[in-house]
């Protein structure tokens, strides 16, 4: 099934999100991306907020983004930074790149929004080299029963529609494990600087390894 386009989200999100960078998001990105090296694939770069934080040890960057407006903004950001990056159209569920060809895949605040986490994670595993890692941060569903039920209701009636397909209630750690990744490199944090309700969500941060 073709992914639903979300052009309105691509218009309002960049200004709203840019304000969060200096409140703490840029520091999270810098910390997350510092260890990266080699060929890197970023999925759903949006307006390219991760681009300033890639270290020189990254030898090639390819970014796959479904929204045209985000691709334009990401290309402009890469040009502004003098960063060589191929920014191409596609979705996480059908990555238009070769099997076993990347040392690392980056997805920050993307697995909350993909149509199918299982399909996206199967594709991420396909394109990584053996032993390669998925790096990212994602807000995830709460362990508490009452709060999780509230997140599910909010997703169904309002949140997902208003926020570019984002879900508050997803078990992203479970999905990453079910796709065969070793999640020892992932930890849980609170991004309290984000707006409510994601300020109250647990964030999964770090890397998950595809078996060698
Ligand atoms: C909340 S934004 C995050 C943008 C960026 N990664 C960041 O950290 O600021 C979600 C991003 O995921 C992208 N996205 C949504 N569904 C996707 C899918 N199925 N495949 C790839 N990217 C997707 C959106 O177009 C958008 O760029």
UniProtKB/TrEMBL annotation:
Keywords: Methyltransferase, Transferase. The keyword tRNA processing does not apply. It holds the Pfam family Methyltransf_11. The keyword Repeat does not apply. It comes from the Bacteria. InterPro entries: Methyltransf_11, SAM-dependent_MTases_sf, Thiol_S-MT. Residues 41-134 form the Methyltransferase type domain. One of its GO terms (molecular function) is S-adenosylmethionine-dependent methyltransferase activity. One of its GO terms (biological process) is methylation. Coiled coil: none annotated. This is Methyltransferase type 11. The lineage of its organism: Bacteria, Bacillati, Actinomycetota, Actinomycetes, Glycomycetales.
């Amino acid at each position: 099934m073709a992914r639903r386009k979300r052009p309105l989200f691509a218009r309002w999100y960049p200004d709203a999100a840019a304000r969060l960078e200096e409140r703490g998001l840029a520091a999270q990105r810098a910390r997350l991306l510092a260890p990266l090296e080699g060929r890197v694939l970023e999925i759903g770069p949006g307006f390219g907020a991760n681009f300033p934080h890639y270290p020189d040890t990254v030898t090639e960057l390819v970014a796959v983004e479904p929204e045209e407006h985000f691709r334009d903004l990401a290309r402009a950001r890469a040009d502004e930074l003098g960063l060589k990056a191929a920014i191409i159209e596609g979705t996480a569920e059908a990555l238009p790149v070769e099997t076993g060809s990347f040392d690392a895949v980056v997805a920050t605040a993307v697995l909350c929004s993909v149509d199918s986490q299982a399909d996206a994670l199967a594709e991420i595993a396909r394109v990584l080299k053996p032993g390669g890692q998925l790096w990212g941060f994602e807000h995830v569903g709460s362990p508490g029963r009452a709060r999780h039920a509230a997140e599910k209701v909010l997703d169904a009636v309002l949140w997902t529609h208003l926020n570019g397909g984002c879900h508050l209630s997803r078990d992203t750690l479970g999905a990453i494990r079910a796709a065969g990744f070793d999640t020892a490199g992932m930890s849980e944090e609170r991004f309290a600087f984000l707006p409510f309700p994601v300020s109250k969500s647990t964030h999964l941060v770090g890397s998950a390894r595809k078996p060698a």
